[in-house]
Design the sequence.
């Protein structure tokens, strides 16, 4: 239920803000707005303001529209023709169309700025043990290092305040094909040594968990300690309990939970046969040894080991917050970065350098809405900002039926000195609808593939 409600709230807010942008710009340009609708289909609630605009909340909350006075849609009285949308100068029509996506981008700036000002608990930028044969391992990272700063190319080092910030820098650099320099130390004030992750050597087609496994930085450092133990799992069968700290496995010291998880996974060979492991654990100050036999579980085409327990203590946290002015700058920077990242990913998908599996639809959005809402209102606002940026960027794409498509029509009109012909307008609109249906079908297919594993 929380997934459905949070999804409906998110969609309603984003659509309302988008259409409000069109509405406010139309009013500012003197164009009468006949109807402002949130949702499609049968009206559930209607009212009018003093300008005569009918506001509607409709039954299907997956869309909305602003209907203006326009001779192309209905006859207009002679004394009002100068007010019609189609009779406005080109700059006014372009401003009204662009105001919808602009409102979504401004909402994202406001949300990101508010979250930055309020403060968010995030994991400290302390690295876990790198995955085997990864870029991080080859760069000499061993786990437990504090990342104090990062930079690409000739940039000056920029402070890294949390593990989330580090992941964002990794994502940006990987998509742009740039090497990332990291400054590692023993704490936030320790400059330490500099290492370079050669991200330019990666062929990035998907931004997913496998990308970070190839880089070698998957999760923040956490102690090799057991959490909840399932009653019917291998850990319970070995007599392990919540709170047990794993000191070593088969004589190899465990630095952190990431290393322990890797040892558990590789305890099963390619035929699905599990090997017993000797664990040295600490419980209530006493050290003891137990034999644990991870149970095989098939994951795709491979076999991995599982012990039926939560592996890893909660990582150390820090509160990342900014002053009012800095928070506004953070909102602008984050909105810009997400917009550029979205365009880069779309461009890579268009030329075949990124997988079309990165395209997400309403089911994935609903799933993430529910997950973020269950974590609290700050994660939900961050999710709302991310989707608002995506909606703004998507609507500015030069595709017919989208706002960006209409702006392209106006660009043609500005260059050619005449509007696009009705014949070509109809052809482009039909093609745009067909393309959007195809993209939405692909997005829903990707959603189903993710949800069904």
Sequence:
């Amino acid at each position: 239920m929380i997934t459905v409600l949070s999804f409906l709230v998110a969609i309603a807010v984003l659509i309302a803000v988008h259409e409000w942008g069109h509405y406010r710009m139309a009013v500012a340009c003197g164009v009468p707005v006949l109807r402002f609708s949130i949702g499609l289909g049968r009206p559930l609630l209607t009212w009018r303001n003093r300008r005569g605009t009918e506001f509607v909340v409709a039954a299907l909350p997956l869309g909305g529209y602003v209907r203006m006075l326009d001779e192309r849609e209905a006859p207009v009285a002679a004394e009002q023709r100068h007010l019609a949308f189609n009779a406005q100068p080109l700059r006014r029509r372009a401003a009204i169309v662009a105001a919808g996506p602009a409102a979504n981008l401004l909402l994202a700036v406001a949300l990101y700025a508010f979250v930055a000002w309020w403060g968010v608990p995030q994991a400290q930028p302390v690295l876990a043990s790198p995955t085997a044969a990864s870029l991080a391992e080859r760069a000499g990272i061993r786990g437990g290092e504090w990342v104090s700063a990062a930079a690409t190319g000739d940039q000056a080092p920029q402070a890294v305040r949390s593990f989330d910030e580090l992941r964002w820098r990794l994502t940006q650099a990987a998509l742009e094909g740039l090497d990332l320099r990291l400054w590692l130390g023993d704490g936030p004030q320790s400059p330490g040594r500099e290492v370079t992750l050669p991200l330019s050597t990666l062929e990035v087609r998907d931004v997913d968990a496998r990308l970070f496994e190839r880089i070698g930085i998957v999760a923040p450092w956490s102690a090799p300690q057991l959490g909840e133990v399932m009653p019917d799992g291998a850990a319970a069968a070995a007599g392990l309990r919540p709170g047990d700290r794993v000191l070593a496995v088969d004589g190899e010291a465990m630095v952190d939970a990431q290393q322990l998880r890797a040892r558990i996974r590789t305890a099963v060979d390619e035929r699905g046969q599990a090997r017993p492991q000797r664990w040295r654990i600490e419980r209530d100050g006493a050290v003891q040894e137990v034999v644990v036999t991870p149970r095989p579980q098939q994951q795709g085409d491979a076999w991995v080991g599982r012990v039926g327990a939560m592996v890893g203590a909660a990582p150390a946290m820090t509160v990342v917050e900014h002053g009012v002015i800095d928070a506004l700058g953070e909102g602008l920077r984050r909105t810009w970065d997400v917009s550029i990242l979205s365009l880069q990913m779309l461009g890579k998908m268009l030329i075949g350098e990124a997988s079309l599996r990165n395209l997400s639809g309403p089911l994935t959005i609903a799933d993430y809405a529910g997950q973020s809402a269950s974590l609290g209102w700050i994660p939900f606002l961050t999710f709302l900002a991310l989707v608002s940026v995506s909606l703004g960027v998507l609507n500015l794409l030069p595709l017919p039926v989208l706002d960006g498509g209409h702006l392209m029509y106006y660009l043609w009109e500005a260059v050619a000195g005449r509007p696009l012909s009705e014949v070509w307008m109809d052809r482009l609109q039909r093609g745009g609808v067909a393309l959007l249906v195809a993209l939405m079908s692909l997005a829903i297919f990707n959603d189903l593939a993710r949800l069904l594993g």
